Amino acid sequence: MLRLGLCLLILPVVALLLLFFIEQARVDDCLAMGGSYDYLKAVCDLQTSHPFVPLMARFGTWINLAMLLSCLGLVFSVLGLYKKA
Questions:
Q1: Domain count, the chain
Q2: Dihedral sign from CA coordinates of 9, 24, 60, 44
Q3: Best exposed site among 19, 44, 62, 68 by fewest CB in 10 Å?
Q4: Buried b / exposed e across 31-43, counting CB within 10 Å, b at 16+?
Q5: Structure pTM?
Q6: Mean per-residue pLDDT for 8-31?
Q7: Residues paired with 11 in a beta bridge
Q8: C-alpha radius of gyration, the chain, whole number
Q9: Which domain holds residue 30?
Q10: Contacts of 77-81 spanning 24+ positions with Cβ under 8 A
């Protein structure tokens, strides 16, 4: 149970970090070319300026699910440690 708990605790957070940093790299490349990043379509637009849309607004369900899995992983980890002691 401890191994499952640690996987559930760590993997969703790593997935969210990867999503965030991959998108930030795309945004940075777009801004370096002089464009504006369209967060809703995930494309670089060289003609029109687009507003910033937070990651939570676009992927709220996935982020909440990942945090729920991490909390569940914390519970499993604590239970796994409790049983071993």
A1: 1
A2: negative
A3: 68
A4: eeeebbbbbeeee
A5: 0.81
A6: 96
A7: none
A8: 18
A9: 2-84
A10: 77/2, 77/5, 77/6, 77/9, 78/5, 79/1, 79/5, 80/1, 80/2, 80/3, 80/4, 80/5, 81/2
Alpha-carbon separation of residue 35 from 27, 43, 50 (angstroms): 9, 10, 10
Contact assessment for residue 63 and residue 56, using Cβ atoms and an 8 Å cutoff: yes
Each residue's pLDDT tens digit, 52-81: 999 999 999 999 999 999 999 999 999 998
Helix (H/G/I), strand (E/B), else coil: 48:
coil
Contacts of 63 (CB under 8 A, 6+ apart): 16, 55, 56
For the record, the structure tokens of 58 come out as 């676009």
**Residue 65, amino acid:** L
